[in-house]
Amino acid sequence: MRKSVFLDRATPPSLATLVLVTGMGALNLNIFLPSLPAIAAYYDADYALVQLSVSGYLAVTAALQLFIGPLSDRYGRRPVMLASLAIFQVATVLVILAPTITLFLAARMLQAAVVASLVLPRAMIRDVVGQEEAASRIGYVTMFMSVVPMVSPALGGFLAGLFGWHATFAAAFLFGLVVFLLFFFDAGETHHNRSTSILRQFGAYPELFRSRRFWGYALTASFSAGAFYAFLGGAPYVANTVLGLDAESIGAYFAIIAVGYMLGNFLSGRYAKLLGITRMMIWGSLIAAIGALIPLFLFLAGYVDPLAFFGPTFLVGMGNGMTLPSANAGMVSVRPHLAGSASGLGGSLMIGGGAVLSSAVGAALTPETGIYPLIAAMFLTMVGAMIASAYVRHVDKLAAREAGARLAPESLSR
User: Fold this and answer.
1) What does the pLDDT average to over 367-386?
2) Structural domains of the chain sorted by starting position, each given as residue range(s) with its CATH number in brackets
3) Tens digit of pLDDT for each residue in 47-66?
């Protein structure tokens, strides 16, 4: 594999390009979150219905990942990515022009085509390097990419305050155009051992289903991301209804979890090769669980203010930043020849679970329940991530023991 050369379509994409491509999906999910109450008012719709623009979007994203991974394994990463980005651009224009909440939600679901920007960079990295190095590179990519979810809610709140919520999607369109052009001119194909049949590629899923290590990594990623998606589904409501914050303030406080995520990504990039991906997952899950639980004690003690709720989410973001790069690298390394399919299937499980959690938390939150359904969802999902990470360690120990048992008779016969 040739070394990456910037703006050379004959070489793999540069790190900067992968960062911006991955950031595209994160921006589209985050930039409009402070505007959810304003969108509900604009269309005169219930908040629970408008919240489908988060949970429904995640559900469609989960379904699409089942197809994007195998398609990229069959036809290549580059054409699938470019097609997805083009569809996203068209959908974003439709979102801006939508006259009713029904058409708005339909166009929002079409925007989910941008999910390729979350799936394929992981596979492209694994195409080029090994498992431990992949965890490190994914950590660095998501560290720099995390600037996008850190800045985008604040930017979205600022734009919505000045020009209305439509401006947030106009900004997403412009960013998407830049990313499309950059990927077109910089990203060469990284997957050269393609299957001869798309049906054969979809038929490879049972091979992944039979892998216990794949399920361990996938469930770790799903539970870990579940805490974040629960936060996305419930935090705007808590901030607006319970804490009385406006759109600009909500966007600013959302930056706290993103800063923590950036730090966690840095730690993953720096230490994943040294400590191993399983240890990174376990420690990250533990830190995030602690962060999810702190607001409960603060609110019960009477500290009902924005920092008591948003401040500890720094640890949730940090824990996620440590856990997810290693879990994602593990998923695409179990069967390297199925890296795209594994990334798509694992991402589908991760975001599908997030869609359910986001919707459930949004429905459970009322002025009477306060923050507690959200806190419970975030804490329990991180406990699930710890259990799944421990399962990976258990499977690895069993595999090492079995390998040792096979080698023992062979050594005695020499």
Assistant:
1) 88
2) 15-187+205-401 (1.20.1250.20)
3) 778 888 887 887 888 788 87
